[in-house]
Design brief:
Elements lengths: L1 E6 L9 H9 L3 E7 L1 H6 L4 H20 L4 E5 L6 H11 L2 E7 L4 H15 L4 E5 L21 H10 L46 H14 L4 H4 L12 H5 L5 H10 L10 H22 L22 H9 L5 H13 L4 H14 L4 H11 L5 H11 L15 H8 L4 H6 L8 H4 L4 H7 L8 H16 L1
Parallel strand pairs: 1-2, 1-4, 2-3, 4-5
Bound molecules: flavin-adenine dinucleotide (FAD).
């Protein structure tokens, strides 16, 4: 009998336990990917991310074809139709077992339960694996048996429980026996229209590209990561996030390669490398939060008191923020980077999110959705975690009175103003002494807007709103 692998957010061969187990269990292996534009859009997935997924499917298909595994893309109306679509595919083939890697979102879990019950009624053997993280979400618990809600003890436990065997991911795939049909990717109509402006050469598709990017970062930038990670013009981070978000590379692979250059140490050795591994653990932390506290997937804040915050709403300010026209050069440069690259530097994500939720006092959920709609690395758990951290509504969040001053952030992290000059070219002739907050006459001359708000007043307004909610 034959096996079916259902690809979801694991668009790779390496360190793909579902695929590996299918190969170990069957001489003939089929593969499917279910594509639903409606579902992707329902989850606010960005047009650029969908583009990236399609391009990665093409690369995945090439690799699977070399192993005699045809990839069939199936069009779906949404998660609710997946069970019957898989059932129909199985009915047409000689399949008796299915393999997939788990996804941990709430809607995904509901869909999977429906698929499992449908397939079990057909006597199909269902095999589920974890590829997204080192530990299954919810596995690491506090001494009281509760899920972690603070990062530092989570990380401690994460390291304490770590065994090097976890990184035993090497596997040589051997071609399977031929199936009498081909992949349908070439003829499949994704009905996809590009509406983003991102230069996709920044994000070449495929797991070979992901690996090359990882190794280049570790070779050239990782040692200096602690020093350079906050400086957006230096670009000292890995930019591996889009590949992790779509599963083109695994977190275990990232950790394994990082440990290789750090003598397999988590807490000593190169501080840049250990700091970088910490960031991968942050990713795992937020997936745990999403899994263990379902309220965050339902649009609710982690901190209950923050439901009482009276958010403002101004269409004009929201538009200025989205378009990179707030009159705060670092905020505008960051938002324009988002549109040009489908990606934003981490420091700037915090700056623009704090500006949005504190100075503008706008509901974090609006910013969270806008990010998802524009990020190539959109990942519900990390995005939600980042927004709730910045708005002080989340777990382990910034205290509500800690409000970044965007001008100070700009002078600290873009000292020479080079990042601003790159993304806000109308300011390119300004001296670094004034570029972070140009005087009125320079703004006029450069055709650059006045600030949309007063930093001091807006800061006090935010603190007051949080205080009232807390009282
Ligand atoms: C408001 C806000 C929204 C965010 N939205 C997302 C998102 O949708 N998708 C996403 O992947 N990350 C998100 N992040 C986290 C972080 O900004 C990005 O992961 C990082 O900028 C990606 O760039 P990189 O791959 O060069 O990171 P590196 O610095 O090279 O880090 C390596 C990897 O570690 C993980 N990582 C790094 N920082 C964080 C973090 N703070 N939280 C969780 N994981 C982290 C990412 O997977 C990243 O690829 C968000 C942060 C904030 C403050």
């Amino acid at each position: 009998m034959e096996a079916l692998v259902w690809f979801r957010s694991d668009l790779r061969l390496e360190d793909n336990p579902a695929l590996r187990n299918a190969f170990e269990n069957s001489e003939k292996v089929h593969a499917i990917f279910i594509f639903s534009k409606k579902q992707l859009e329902k989850h606010n997935e960005a047009n650029v991310k969908i583009d990236f997924i399609i391009k990665n499917l093409i690369q995945l298909e090439k690799k699977l074809t070399e192993l005699n595994v045809p990839l069939t893309v199936i069009k779906s109306d949404g998660f609710y139709s997946d069970a019957s679509l898989i059932g129909e595919f199985i009915d047409k083939k000689n399949i008796d077992k299915i393999f997939w890697n788990n996804q941990f979102g709430e809607d995904e879990a509901i869909r999977d339960r429906q698929v499992i019950s449908h397939l079990e009624s057909k006597n199909i053997n269902v095999n589920i694996f974890n590829d997204q993280m080192v530990y299954e979400p919810g596995f690491l618990k506090t001494g009281q048996g509760l899920p972690y809600s603070v990062f530092t003890p989570f990380k401690r436990k994460w390291i304490e429980n770590f065994e090097m065997d976890f990184l035993d991911i090497e596997y040589q795939y051997q071609s399977r026996k031929n199936l009498n049909y081909l992949s349908n990717l070439k003829d499949f109509d994704f009905n996809f229209e590009t509406t983003h402006q991102v230069n996709m050469n920044l994000w070449p598709a495929g797991e070979d590209e992901a690996e090359a990017r990882l190794l280049k970062f570790l070779d050239e930038k990782a040692i200096k990561y602690s020093k350079n990670r906050n400086d957006p013009i230096v670009d000292g981070t890995s930019r591996i996030s889009p590949y992790l978000a779509s599963g083109v590379i695994s977190s275990k692979k990232c950790i394994l390669e990082a440990l290789k250059i750090n003598n397999f140490e988590f807490s000593s050795g190169h501080i840049g490398v250990t700091k970088w591994i910490d960031e991968i653990v942050w990713r795992e932390f937020y997936k745990n939060i999403m899994f263990s506290f379902p309220k965050v997937s339902r649009g609710q804040p982690f901190q209950d008191y923050s439901k009482k915050i009276e958010w403002r709403y101004s269409e004009e300010e929201f538009t200025a923020w989205k378009e990179g026209m707030t009159g705060f050069p670092i905020v505008d440069a960051a938002m324009r980077q988002l549109h040009h690259e489908g990606w934003m530097h981490n420091r700037l994500r915090m700056v623009v999110a704090m500006f949005f939720t504190k100075n503008m006092l706008h509901d974090w959920r609006l910013g969270e959705a806008y990010f998802m709609q524009n990020l190539i690395d959109g990942d519900f758990a990390s995005n939600n975690g980042g927004w709730q951290w910045s708005s002080s509504t989340g777990t382990d969040a910034a205290p509500y009175f800690r409000i970044f001053n965007p001008i100070t952030q700009s002078t600290n992290f873009d000292k020479e103003g080079l990042f601003i000059k790159k993304y806000v070219p109308e300011l390119k002739d300004l001296d670094k002494s004034i570029i972070h907050n140009p005087p009125k006459e320079h703004r006029k001359y450069c055709n650059y807007p006045e600030p949309i708000l007063d930093l001091k007043e807006s800061r006090l307004r935010a603190i007051e709103a949080f205080k009232i909610a807390k009282s």
